[in-house]
Amino acid sequence: DVKVTQSSRYLVKRTGEKVFLECVQDMDHENMFWYRQDPGLGLRLIYFSYDVKMKEKGDIPEGYSVSREKKERFSLILESASTNQTSMYLCASSDARSGNTIYFGEGSWLTVV
Amino acid sequence: AQSVTQPDIHITVSEGASLELRCNYSYGATPYLFWYVQSPGQGLQLLLKYFSGDTLVQGIKGFEAEFKRSQSSFNLRKPSVHWSDAAEYFCAVVASGNTPLVFGKGTRLSVIA
Question: Does the first or last residue of chain A, that is N or C, have fewer Cβ atoms within 10 Å of its Cβ?
């Protein structure tokens, strides 16, 4: 089975802190994604990556950056956390070999105070 | 641009009753179509997917969905709902190739005795 692991399930950070959300997948998938989920807004794509050291902006990239130094790892970075970034963050991966089916991690709940 | 509409924000059904969750998409060609389920506090789990072929697809947990090209719909059905089916359901669409999934805003299902 595909395993997408988000290292932190629950985080509380202060406004202005730099925050790292880590995601690792074990299926050698080429594609990785970061989504944000908020009540009433569904899932919104922040950034995605189709290859190592490659990144593409999604629908809501402002205030975020990403890093993909290794194929299995995709990190989301909040350079200076703000209260409006309090949310559930979901990492996902996919690959053409799986028919581009996206597999999700368990999610990271971030609260910025 | 692709879009997905789930017209029902919240649905309540009685245990044992049948269920249909609606999903309409906007896309020029036939996209790849997915249904995911999310239990509270968890990530998204794939229920089923449609790429091509038979327009009625079977998924896990007794769910099925039917692709209707003429209506641009991909509705999810279950003949008899169980209390454990209470969750949020997301329809998603992707064009072929390495493009990210576009999600609907979700339908929350409540099951009553």
Answer: N
